[in-house]
Amino acid sequence: MAKKELTEIEIAECIPDLWMPLTQEQREFLAKNFTVQKFKKNETIYCEGEKPQHLMCLLTGKVKIYKEGVGGRSQIIRVIKDKEYFAYRAYFAEEDFVTAAAAFEPCTICFIPMKAIMELLKVNNELALFFIRQLSIDLGIADERTVNLTQKHIRGRLAESLIFLKDTYGVEEDQCTLSIYLSREDLANLSNMTTSNAIRTLSNFANEKLITIDGRKIKIIEEEKLRKISKIG
Amino acid sequence: MAKKELTEIEIAECIPDLWMPLTQEQREFLAKNFTVQKFKKNETIYCEGEKPQHLMCLLTGKVKIYKEGVGGRSQIIRVIKDKEYFAYRAYFAEEDFVTAAAAFEPCTICFIPMKAIMELLKVNNELALFFIRQLSIDLGIADERTVNLTQKHIRGRLAESLIFLKDTYGVEEDQCTLSIYLSREDLANLSNMTTSNAIRTLSNFANEKLITIDGRKIKIIEEEKLRKISKIG
DNA sequence: ATAAAACCGTGTTATACAGCACAAAGGTAG
DNA sequence: CTACCTTTGTGCTGTATAACACGGTTTTAT
Q: Is residue B3 part of a domain?
């Protein structure tokens, strides 16, 4: 794990939520316990069953958190965008990882030992409240997701994923091309369906002029109609 | 909401996780902000869309947390047993409730204003760590659940629910009768299936001598085989 | 006690989706 | 350039499970 020297200002820009609540002394403590690592496209960041050791903050790139289910079918549980924290849940719960993480595209990730975080948590309540808030938001999303994935039909689930990707990673300059290029398989794993059905349903959406597809490039044309399809299931 | 006078010792026994980390002064503060309310069987405790105001601790009884999905189909997200806390997630996330809660059976619930909890959180880190830990555990369960509900077949899902009910609420003196008596509909909503299929699959399990059923009374006979069915999906 | 409602059980039908096979296209490596 | 592997796309088939209908039973309410 490569150690990298950064100025305090650079660090602060990378991890504002974590940095802001800290005192000067706490910041110096954190700066000492700070490493940065790069990951290639599709590279695994951590695996199911491993022991969590570090809080991770995604500095640049895009990450998927997923889980292998029955018969090797993989389900994408959530996705991380830059400046977001992850990999801390299992440590707090005193469990091994129940999910795995991999890079959608080349990533730079900041690693902070969870032991250091625990030290800070003992003396800094604002930091604790940050984690409480973050975990609470994620738990709400997970609850929504459980119902959506189980009850909606294929079109609803795919429409929801497309909207979700737009809301999470945003669009390119043209205001409609999703700025993440996923394989059909990843899209299927995000939407709880087989790859064939992701392909088919995506084609249907294109035929209905709700989107256009050009390889992995997806343009959202009729966002409102997609939202409606997602909503009614 | 009826105010009820309790001795400190009684309170401490009701809500140990919350009480233990507190100083004497903090305990007095909490004791002042403490109300208890009873709920009848099937009574709603809170609804989707409402504003969360209180941390709730289930003193006695059993509670379901559920969510209405598409077409009025309801999905039980998690269940609460006595001495467990709930209803705090939405407040921490600064959201309205995304779930609803109702009593499986007659309940006594202790209400503590979230504002009081927030006050305590500002000055007591152990309390913050309690919530961090609890939220982390629940988020892990939610992740597991998403995959199980979406990928397992009907038999796997029902088997899992039966095991889950045993692990959560335990059994009666005979060591095998589940100590919670659910309607077939609730069992279906817990397992993401229709009521008819819950009935049918339950009968199948009974024919295969994995369980016995007598109305809502369910005896687990072959726990290991059920666990296996749950595991392989 | 009687009516009404909720719940339980079973059979039948309909369908959404998975599974598989295979072809075409695109990317990658030697 | 050629060969190979991965990804995309399409058609066909099978099946798990939802949806519906209906009769019997238990619980609740008056």
A: no
Residues of A in contact with B137 (CB under 8 A): 93, 95
Tell me: do B204 and B102 sit in the same domain: no
Cα(A99)–Cα(A85) distance, integer angstroms: 15
Name the percent of chain B lying above pLDDT 90: 84
Specify the residue for token string 């997701």. Answer: A145
* Helix axis angle, B154-169 to B195-207, nearest 10°: 80
Q: What is the domain-level CATH number for residue A220?
A: 1.10.10.10
Reduced to 3 states (helix: H, G, I; strand: E, B; else coil), residue B100 is strand
- pLDDT tens per residue, chain A (233 residues)? 444 556 777 777 777 788 888 889 998 888 888 899 999 999 999 999 999 999 999 999 999 999 998 888 999 999 999 999 999 999 999 999 999 999 999 999 999 999 999 999 999 999 999 999 999 999 999 999 999 999 999 999 999 999 999 999 999 999 999 999 999 999 999 999 999 999 999 999 999 999 999 999 999 999 999 999 999 88
Q: Do B92 and A147 touch (CB under 8 A)?
A: no
Residue A67 domain flag: yes
Domain of residue A20, CATH code: 2.60.120.10
Q: Tell me how many domains chain B contains.
A: 2
Decide: helix, strand or coil at residue B98. Answer: coil
CB contact B141 to A (< 8 Å): no
Residue in B with minimal Cα distance to A86: B136
Which strand D bases fall within 7 angstroms of a protein CB? 7-11, 16-21, 26-27
What are the residues whose beta carbons fall under 8 Å from the beta carbon of A35, sequence distance 6 or more? A1, A2, A3, A4, A110, A111
In this complex, the answer to whether residue B42 has its CB under 7 A from any atom of chain D, a nucleic strand, is no
Residue A3, in any domain of the structure:
no
Q: State which residues form the domain around B203.
A: 152-232
Query: Quick one: A37 and A83 in the same domain?
Result: yes
Instruction: Decide if A142 and B144 are in contact by the 8 Å CB cutoff.
Output: no
